[in-house]
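Deviations from the work plan: none for this task. Representative record:
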Amino acid sequence: MAHVREAVAALLRESVTRLPEDYLSALRDAEAREESPLGRRMLRMLLDNAELAGRAGVATCQDTGIPVLFVQVGQDVHLVGGSLAEALEEAVRDAYRDLRKSVVRDPLVRENTGDNTPPIVHYEIVPGDRVRVAALVKGFGAEMTSALRMLPATAGEVEVKRFVVEVVQRAGPNACPPVIVGVGLGSSFDGVALLAKRALLRPLGTPNPAPHLARLEQELLEAINATGVGPQGLGGRFTALAVHVESAPTHIAALPVAVNLNCSAPRRAEVVL
Amino acid sequence: MREWHLRTPLRDEDVVGLRAGDWVTLSGVVYGARDAAHQRLAEALRRGEPLPIPLEGQVIYYVGPAPAKEGWAVGPAGPTTSGRMDPFTVPLLERGLKATVGKGTRSAEVKEAMVRYRAVYLATVGGAAAVLARHIVRGRVVAYEDLGTEAIWELELREFPAVVVNDVHGGDLYGSAQTAYARP
């Protein structure tokens, strides 16, 4: 367990100071193509920030969120030496010693837990003998603008698109654009939210393998970028850098759709043990 | 893009010339405060108690800084979403607050009050917290210390970059710029 604790703490520390290369590459591309002068200035500041944070070893954003951990445990793995949940909690405590403490124990009482625990953990048992931990460190500016709607069965693609674009447009500057848009389709009320969040784990530049969903991702990206919201909501071409759609089977009555936005400091990392 | 170099505290004549879309840099002392601190300021006003910070001519930056690393005055310190402070903002503007700094849209009520009391709303870059912290040369908690990162901070800025979103004439950059780049 000490191994899990160390590895996950290192993963979190790394993720808060270094943004993924696929994202930085998309950001550089956006800077080159953005038409709005103010928009270009915003994108340049984001790139400078990523460079400074990486070099100085400080967090890219003060909001280092509630870490969301996706833990896949191979069914042949036998974990020894204590509780996995506790090891993950300790990892967060270690990693957040020098970061902002942004978690309150109770949503109404609102007393800060003081160590940024507990994390949000999603467990999954998979074939194999490995443990894979993926982390999303999400700021809550973008999280607060996310939304879910239980559309009726016959709503179809048109209604889905309308809802997704509406969420991103309404979020506007609050979500710190350019955003990455995670869309969940199908499943149930709880499941669709998780699909949207999981969609944000996918590296930029990797479309959904299903052709109809890859097409939907492309069309959604174009529709979102036609809104003119732009970098930081100050107008421009690049409101979103990517749209990722994940889908799952659903009920005959419903077309659940969830939109989870990731901000301009999309911290994402993964480790295999 | 017009650019202004402002020094706090601000007077009416410092802000009336600003227009939505202008670039500004801020230097001097501002106060950092977010959700919980605003709630306490509102409670103090309701009870008729004195406030722990001056408001006349002052600037509030919506921020909850991260812990400072050695060699830094404060840790990463980017803007938080301003709209959450809307329910508490009008009484502060009424008492002379000249500018607020954050990111994201403001309510109609706050926008009207900014015109009425001659105050501006500035946006800085969400997600550029390390770069912005380099423009903060001194930082200390001055009130509500028990709130941790949500305490009220006194921050001395040096050429802190921001853009005017709402000016005292009713100009609103979020509205106008998005319309300018929207495609049918």
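Chain A has eight helices and eight strands.
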